[in-house]
Amino acid sequence: MRHFVRLEQQDFAVALIGPRLERRLLLDDLVLDAELQRHHGTQATVRVDGVVRPIHLAVAGDRVLVWLDGEVFDAAVLEPLALYAGMTAAASGLEARAPMPGCVVALPVAVGDIVRAGETLVVIESMKLEVNLRATSAGRVVAISCDVGRNFDKDAVLVLLAAHEGGEHAATD
Amino acid sequence: VHAPTRAQALARTRAALHETVLLGCGTNIAFLGRLLMHPLVQNGEVHTSLIQEHLPSLQRPPPSPATLYAVVAAAALSSASVEQAADAVPPLHAAIGAWRN
């Protein structure tokens, strides 16, 4: 399993390989002899293939801020699953995502429902306008992460669908 | 900072900036460091539109691969989840190296 380190708009695939006491860092297709030593506070040293460099390090969730030689770098460590999950649901149209901040007015579907393409998943109100968010493809409702009367932010995933084989068939019933 | 000569004062200011570490919010510390090292500032030929005119040469140069690798290594090695993923590999498979199915 490879994690990704996002740095300077580039994604580096990383993994630790080898037995516990002789771990090496697999970085894209390079195998590096790398070691991190934390000292007092943010102080640390990183050694990559014999070159030791003093750094400062702050970790906040998946975000890692690294000071190196007078410059601060903002890196993010991404779980491979999180990266791919974000890609697939959005790409396949299996989610109803809030186009703008607003409030949920009605939720005509429940978890487990089979919906057909074009069916309304959630009715929202934003900027005094009621908008129906419709399913762009047939599927089964697997998660509803909102409630009638609750507010949400832009880009919040309100209803998540899973692809369903009988989706098109259900539409003709 | 104080120093007997301009050059020494600039060097001390530069050293002080280089020792200043602030993580978590954007700062212009590195930019000020580059500005102090600029030949015109070193020679005292400073005027109000200097930064505007020389902005390209004051921008941060792209980091070298060695620098990027050091930062990526630090980020990966500081992550508990990267370490847990490695611990989840059975010792026999780990001995094989990078091969995964």
Characterization of this structure:
The complex is a heterodimer of chains A (173) and B (101). Chain A is mostly beta strands. Chain A contains 2 helices and 17 strands. Chain A has helices spanning 80-92, 167-172; strands spanning 3-7, 10-17, 24-27, 30-32, 34-38, 43-48, 51-60, 63-68, 71-78, 95-97, 102-106, 114-115, 120-126, 129-134, 139-144, 151-152, 157-163. A 9-stranded antiparallel β-sheet of chain A has the order 4-3-2-1-9-8-7-6-5. Chain A is elongated, with a radius of gyration of 23 Å. Residues 167-173 of chain A have low confidence and may be disordered. Chain B is mainly alpha-helical and 101 residues long. Helices cover 61% and strands 0% of the residues of chain B. Chain B is built from 8 helices and no strands. Chain B has helices spanning 6-19, 29-37, 39-42, 50-53, 55-58, 65-77, 80-87, 91-96. In chain B, helix 1 (6-19) packs antiparallel against helix 2.
Ordered list of secondary-structure elements with their pairings:
The complex is a heterodimer of chains A (173) and B (101).
Chain A: E1 3-7, E2 10-17, E3 24-27, E4 30-32, E5 34-38, E6 43-48, E7 51-60, E8 63-68, E9 71-78, H1 80-92, E10 95-97, E11 102-106, E12 114-115, E13 120-126, E14 129-134, E15 139-144, E16 151-152, E17 157-163, H2 167-172
Chain B: H1 6-19, H2 29-37, H3 39-42, H4 50-53, H5 55-58, H6 65-77, H7 80-87, H8 91-96
Helix pairs in contact in B: 1-2
